[in-house]
Amino acid sequence: xxxxxxxxxxxxxxxxxxxxxxxxxxxxxxxxxxxxxxxxxxxxxxxxxxxxxxxxxxxxxxxxxxxxxxxxxxxxxxxxxxxxxxxxxxxxxxxxxxxxxxxxxxxxxxxxxxxxxxxxxxxxxxxxxxxxxxxxxxxxxxxxxxxxxxxxxxxxxxxxxxxxxxxxxxxxxxxxxxxxxxxxxxxxxxxxxxxxxxxxxxxxxxxxxxxxxxxxxxxxxxxxxxxxxxxxxxxxxxxxxxxxxxxxxxxxxxxxxxxxxxxxxxxxxxxx
Length: 272
Description:
272 residues; alpha/beta; Rossmann fold; 10 helices
């Protein structure tokens, strides 16, 4: 059911790859709720993914290729988006993350530092670059909402998540620091959502992901949150209903983050 929560709002969604991705589901929900927006991803992701199919489903939305680590590319995304959409932006989704060390199965305690720096640049500093570019171009309306997608590995150790955990910690810190600055300057809200382990193309590349997923499902009183449910949460945070929510890392994980141990898991361990 649609509520027209984003009617008249303009946005930019970074990171949609395929139907499994959270950014894809967010785009569908934004369209359903009345928003207009552009889609952006790296050129290689545009070649590998199905983003043009998504664009067609969202009323022939425009796709703008960009390397989110490039300030020049980001300026193009914001400038072109404002031109295409006819004004300043009301919401931005940052759903960008990649680790060469994870892809190459290089262990955290024997890391490749060039790869590590790429992880931080792609997965976290790109969030700062998005926000800084928006600030310099005065691209966001007052009370705009910017979201980055995170994971609880920023606070807890999940073997196999590797240097992505450090990147998520930095992402959340940037949201707080930039949220403070942007709030005073333009009343812009900046938050991160710490989502349940979700069966996305990127997530499934993490070593031991299936174990993370099933463990969280057993631990969470409400079960794991799906990509579509994450999209619903994003809509709420893009809407005017959450105008005073900023600088927060918001757990969207069925209660996993505050559950010490579940009865279900205890019973399973006793049986073993």
